[in-house]
Amino acid sequence: MEIQLIYGPNNSGKSKYAEEVAVSTGYKLIYLATMVPQNEENLQRIEKHRIQRRDKGFQTIEAGWNIDKIQTDPETVILLEDASNLVANGIFMHGADAPAALEAILHLAKRCKMLIVVSIGGLCAEGYDAETASYIGQLNWLNEKLEEVADKVVEMSVDAEGNPEKRIMKLAKQPETQRAAYFRNEKCEYFPCHQDADPENHNCLFCYCPLYTLGDKCGGAFRYTKSGRKDCSNCTLPHRRENYEYVMEKCEEIGKLMKK
After folding, report:
1. Distance of CA 201 to CAs 159, 192, 219, 240, Å?
2. What is the DSSP annotation of 128-180?
3. Does the structure show a pLDDT above 70 at 86?
4. Which of 14, 67, 143, 229 has its CA 20 to 30 A from that of 96?
5. What is the pTM for the complete model shown?
6. 66-75, 80-89, 105-114, 169-178: which range is least confident on average?
7. 117 and 14 in contact (C-beta within 8 Å)?
8. What span, in angstroms and rounded, lies between the C-alpha atoms of 44 and 66?
């Protein structure tokens, strides 16, 4: 069982990215559509997603609620699109709540190879009526719980030019058998080389960070000095044990830059 959570605001590219992740696995695919259309805008969004996933090999199953009862098997990858609609359906149509939605999601995850959950993130309840604010609160609670149990969490956003960006927020720790993914040199005179580093899980493999060349696209906690130089002294991203896969994924972007 594996759970991946992909969240972000509307039109941030999270659905397209989720489809790419699902297709890349090579397994049988189910697209679990949870939206129950209420207006023309909903119907247009559904059609947009149908066109987007056309010819990608998905079997579409529509289920606004009771998703844990759909037919699946241990060799299937399920893309749940999306958790925000699922919670809304539960609250406004079935008298249920976010904990019930979480229970259904976790039960479904146990019955498939991988469950990819798409959700809207970053909503704030301030300024909304009580009913809507309650819904937003429950959705945010669900997202937090899914982050806790997910093996991988990706946050999608949009840059200043309107292009989708992804940031990996969490990756499952590498098995101890993957020795090449972790190295700690306690004899180094600079160990640990960052003030806030965790000595017990400090990874020295990327001593000189390969992501430096990506500038502001690296995903780390850097700052620019007055002279315009990139200061990474407060960033421990490449040295955190769980971020090995994140760095390796980013290296693919470096490869693309080198080809230009």
Report:
1. 32, 10, 20, 6
2. S-HHHHHHHHHHHHHHHHHHHH-SEEEEEEE-TTS-EEEEEEEEPPPPTT-GG
3. yes
4. 14
5. 0.67
6. 169-178
7. no
8. 24
